[in-house]
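>> received
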Amino acid sequence: MAKADGLLARLEAKFRLWTIVSTMVPTMGALGLQLVTFAVTARGLGVEQFGRYTALLAIVAVGVELIGMGGADLLVRAVSRDKSRFATYYGNMLVTIAITLPIAVLVGTLVATGVMRVEVDLPFIVVALFAEIGLARVSASTELVMVAHGHTARAGWVRVATVVARLAVALAFFVVLKRSALDDWILFLTVQSVLMMLFYGWLGARMYGAPRMVWLGSEMKSGFLFCVNQGARSMQSNLDRMVLSRFADAYSLGVYGAASRILQLGLFPMQVMTRIFYPKFFQHGANGMAASRRYALRVAPALFGTGILSAAAVAGAALFAPHVLGHDFAGSVDVTIGLSLALPFIALQYPAADALTGAGRQGLRAAIFSLSAVGFGFVLVAGIWFKGVPGLIGAFVFAHFLLAAILWGAAFLCKDAPASQTVQVTQ
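>> returned
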């Protein structure tokens, strides 16, 4: 019997390793393609226009997490436990995206024109936010649909398809047509984004079943907590560019924006790892906080190691930035290396935060991320106020270290459910 258990354990370990490898392959391919797309876009627009575009992308990154009211996360939670619930939760996800996308575009436009003062004409701000937020949300939700069904490798290919489509548009616009105006670029990417959104909506229904178009009002409280949590996390990752857009010129924003884009490539491997582990937190969390925390401790070393490797890869990639993007972006080398120091701390945030979610402490997680988003703002403003861009970099790294410490502290301080209310799950 012991030999059989040992064999099963080895087979399970090999299966997990194969899952990670098969998921990483398309993701790493997407990383390479996205780097090419980023380089083509940055060179084509030039440092100042790219700076303005970067400011809009910072709003997009936050807006994409605020639309949908957590519908994709609700789907993962429901379908990972009972796949027969897919049609209802898929329909709810699509309905909430359709309702909240116009609201996110309106709020984002007000932030761009009022708070950040982005130097792009109003109609193009609206169109760009609609296209970029919409495509990012629909593609990410399609990935989560596949993750909920256990198809993590397949989800990676969705990201590849999204990047390939954008790269094709960038090559057509900047290389073939030799265009360079930001306004024209926004119009081109809008057409591509709308077509991709329609395609992903069809793909989810084709692969897993047609949606039942309903709005699950009873789930909105939980969905709102998912939404607030993800939005706050995204705010922390993009608030630096929002702050910089208010205090710096377009050239400085372009250099920093290039560094931030390179840094975001380092987040993808961590996201792949978390999508493999994420559904498991709900299974372990059903047994209480202790079980969820134990699972977090099991996966934390793998995530931390991924964060270190990502930081090294990002720092190495930064050295080639002037050759790839053009010498106007030479200042992004030191900025990128400095920002990469935050990646191991960002990696450590995921298991602790997911442990809270899996154990039903999503409200606490949302509160931590919401309050920390405000704290991030103060820390970043203080950094740039006293030391300019170097101060902003230091504040960014310190803030992510502090957030990781707070999340792990919360995961250990949370009281476990009474033993009589838990049922042991073995894995």
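>> Residues 1-5, 11-15, 418-427 have pLDDT under 50 and may be disordered.
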